[in-house]
Design a protein that fits this description.
Blueprint (H helix, E strand, L loop, with lengths): L2 E6 L26 E2 L8 E7 L2 H8 L7 E8 L4 H9 L2 E2 L2 E2 L4 E5 L20 E8 L6 H8 L4 E9 L2 E2 L8 E3 L1
């Protein structure tokens, strides 16, 4: 069994085939037979688990198993206590109410790499970092949740999946575990 932890850079697809001129996992990982367990959108960064074990892939990606996923989210403006409480309670989206999330303000992550291209900066609109842990995986869920409470996502980094984290992995790096 092969399991890989990969720090997916911004603007890279979570698949081995390229589409529309976008970069893909094949540019970084030359390990036949492994597939992403879950996805990260092209405009999201961070931890992607790849494996050749179908059962493990299902345990990570299936909502039935509720593997916690923690994200570092840079949002517009500083969320007040009511916005954070809404995220913790569950937010109503077009596809229904989300499960409760764990959420708290945080400092910008230590040692955070520069994103290319950088997040847009506006003097008149401050930003803030939050840590958000969810146990489901709807399409673009974190982005939709933060927008629903009035704080659009500027940058989204998946820090952990279950007990696995990004620690020690620079963007584009991977390690077999």
């Amino acid at each position: 069994m092969t399991t890989i932890l990969f720090n997916k850079p911004f603007n890279v697809l979570s698949q081995f085939t390229s589409e529309g001129g976008h970069r893909s996992l094949a540019e970084f990982i030359n390990k036949p037979g492994v597939y992403a367990a879950g996805r990260l959108d092209r405009d999201s960064e961070g931890l992607l688990v790849l494996t050749d074990d179908g059962k493990l892939q299902n345990r990570i990606a299936s909502p039935k198993f509720i593997a916690p996923k923690t994200y570092w989210v840079q949002v517009e403006r500083e969320p007040d206590d009511a916005a954070l409480a809404a995220l913790r309670k569950g937010v109503t989206l077009k596809d229904g109410l989300t499960a409760p999330a764990e959420c708290e303000r945080m400092a910008e992550p230590a040692g955070l790499w520069t994103r290319d291209p950088p997040v847009r900066f506006r003097k008149s609109v401050p930003d803030c970092w939050i840590s958000l842990t969810i146990r489901e995986g709807r399409n673009r869920q974190v982005r939709r949740m933060t927008a629903a409470v009035g704080h659009p996502t500027l940058r989204l980094i998946r820090y952990s999946v279950g007990d696995w984290t990004l620690d020690g992995l620079e963007p584009g790096q991977w390690q077999e575990i």
